[in-house]
Amino acid sequence: MLTRRQFVAGAASVGTGAIIGAASARPRYTHKLGAPVEMKAGKTVSVRLTAAERPMALPCFGGRSLPMWTFADGEWPPLIRLNLGDRLEAILENRLPRANESTSIHWHGIRLPNDQDGVPYLVQPPVQPGESFHYSFTPPDAGTFFFHTHCNTVEQLGRGLEGVLIIDGDTTEPYDADMVLLLRDWQADLETGQFNSFYTLRGAARAGTYGPLRSVNGAKNPELPLPASGDCRLRVINTDPTRVMQIGVEGTEAAIIAIDGLAVQPFPLTLWSMGPAMRIDVVMRAPAEGKFARLIDKSPPDRVELAHFVGKGRPRRKTAFDPTPLRAARIPEPNLKTAERLSFLFQASDAGGALSVAYNALGAAVGSLCLSSKVFWTINGQPWPDRDHARLPPPLAVLRRGQSYVFSLKNDSPFMHPIHIHGHTFKLLRSNKQSRPEHHADTLLLLPEEQTEVAFVADNPGDWMFHCHIIEHQESGMMGYFRVA
Ligand code: C2O
Ligand code: CU
Predict the structure, then answer these.
(1) Is residue 376 within 8 Å of residue 443, measured between CB atoms?
(2) Which end of the chain is less enclosed by CB atoms within 10 A, N or C?
(3) What is the mean pLDDT of residues 356-360?
(4) Ligand 1 within 6 A of 467 CB?
(5) How confident is the model at residue 19 (pLDDT cuts 50, 70, 90)?
(6) Contact 420, 344 (CB under 8 A)
(7) 232: closest CA among 345, 323, 336?
(8) Chain centroid to CA 137: how far?
(9) How far is residue 274's CA from residue 278's CA, in Å, rounded to a whole number?
């Protein structure tokens, strides 16, 4: 039976026609966002991250061990946890088993100094096998973040070089549980115990290559115990190189309380589109003792159960669901009156467009075509010149430090593109295809032919990547950078 609240939410998303709405703008919960905290200097947290091949038998590999590349012994994914104000000292050591397989770490979504951003050639030398690199920074925002390699990303991330970064200090009251749910697929062949190829021409020119093996924290549809009838914080992170999901919860009530790590006024979670690198923090009322709720991906054509939750123990809460919000982040507010406007067009290159059309017409037979270009995507007509970062093109734009900008992002293609900005966070202003509550994001999903406007203050000096987070798109041209000077 639907509660009134679920009914209203459902009706709202049906009524919006062409606009895909995750929720109507009408507030349904009574608690207001908490006031931001003043950051105080904290302790120093030191970690050592050694990139190496570690054969691992994740539960979703069904007893097979695969040659994963990871940052740490033992558990996957590794988790780094700090308090707001703490300084992270991370030593990355490259012990990858292949000559010239350089690596680096990008701290996704963290507004940090440019030389800590982990982009090889642009801001640091690539870390060669046998070498190491010392990262040191104090994250300015609390919330749910992650980190990953920024070198040969399609393979290195494909094999597992990533981890979760949580900055505590954003709660107003404790939740009854706090759980990370890292969603991603594996390009794994369980017959041979090897990975499939991480990059295909068809995938690069179209929607990307989806992995056949789906997982949550390395397990297929795990059963996750939660305190019965508790309000539980779920940190849902899509780190898949390719897959766009439509995340929902069945069997209970849930609300989104943060997007890309940053608090939002809580609103009901009906379905939320999550492209690669996107995060949501959810508060979910856990099922009663012995009862179940489900995390699902409803992207057409399937409904896939990603994980299920079972309530354990005495009931924690009896009042109607009214989720406790987080504390607002301190993001500089762009001045829309004085903002300068810049437009970015995300498009297929001539070769990419032709290849995509050819796959439509010929299917697999395209594999025999001779390709003169490996560049399938462009930003403002400019492709990143090759899959590596060694040859740097000129910046897409030079921004004035301290100036507010409105970026108009237009997807001129029939595929989705999760567009990621380094070193800053966008404030979403409007879109011609999706209606979403006001929020900040470091990665914004552009639907086919969507045009979105975002604003931010260019307050962080340096060269900042700006790219699609479908890694095959990123590595076939849809990548650039802008300079804040
Ligand atoms: Cu998470 Cu440049 O990427
Ligand atoms: Cu893309």
Answers:
(1) no
(2) N
(3) 80
(4) yes
(5) very low
(6) no
(7) 323
(8) 21
(9) 6
Ligand 1 atom closest to the CA of 479, numbered from 1:
2
- Two structure tokens written together for 81: 């946890």
Shortest-distance ligand to the CA of residue 105: 1
Task: Say if residue 15's pLDDT is above 70.
Answer: no
Q: How far is the CA of 119 from the centre of ligand 1 (A)?
A: 9
- The reply to whether ligand 1 has any atom less than 6 angstroms from the CB of 108 is yes
- CB contact at 8 A, 22 and 436: yes
Whether 277 lines ligand 1, by a CB cut-off of 6 Å, is: yes
Higher pLDDT pick, 366 / 390: 390
Q: In this structure, which residues have their CB less than 5 angstroms from ion ligand 2?
A: 417, 468, 470, 473
Query: Residue 14 has what pLDDT?
Result: 34
Q: Whose CA is nearest to atom 1 of ligand 1?
A: 108
Q: Is the pLDDT of residue 389 over 80?
A: no
Q: How far is the CA of 430 from the centre of ligand 2 (A)?
A: 20
Token pair in block for residue 109? 């979504």
What SS3 string covers the chain?
CCCHHHHHHHHHHHHCCCCEECCCCCCCCCCCCECCCCCCCCCEEEEEEEEEEEEECCHHHCCCCEEEEECCCCCCCCEEEEECCCEEEEEEEEECCCCCCCECCEEECCCCCHHHCCCECCCECCECCCCEEEEEECCCCCEEEEEECCCCHHHHHHCCCEEEEEEECCECCCCCEEEEEEEEEECEECCCCEECCCCCHHHHHCCCCCCCEEEECCECCCEEEEECCCEEEEEEEECCCCCCEEEEEECCCEEEEEECCEEEEEEECCCEEECCCCEEEEEEECCCECCEEEEEECCCCCCEEEEEEEEECCCCCCCCCCCCCEECCCCCCCCCCCCEEEEEEEEECHHHHHHHHHHHHHHHHHHHCCCCCCCCEEECCECCCCCCCCCCCCCCEEECCCCEEEEEEEEECCCCEEEEECCCCEEEEEECCEECCCCEECEEEECCCCEEEEEEECCCCEEEEEEECCHHHHCCCCEEEEEEC
| 436 Cβ closer than 6 Å to some ligand 1 atom | no
Please report which confidence band the pLDDT of residue 365 belongs to, taking 50, 70 and 90 as the band edges. low
Nearest-CA residue for ligand 1 atom 2 is 465
Ligand nearest to the CA of 467: 1
Q: Whose CA is nearest to atom 3 of ligand 1?
A: 108
Whole-number average pLDDT of the chain: 92
Output Rg (C-alpha) for the chain, integer angstroms: 22
- Does residue 16 register a pLDDT over 50? no
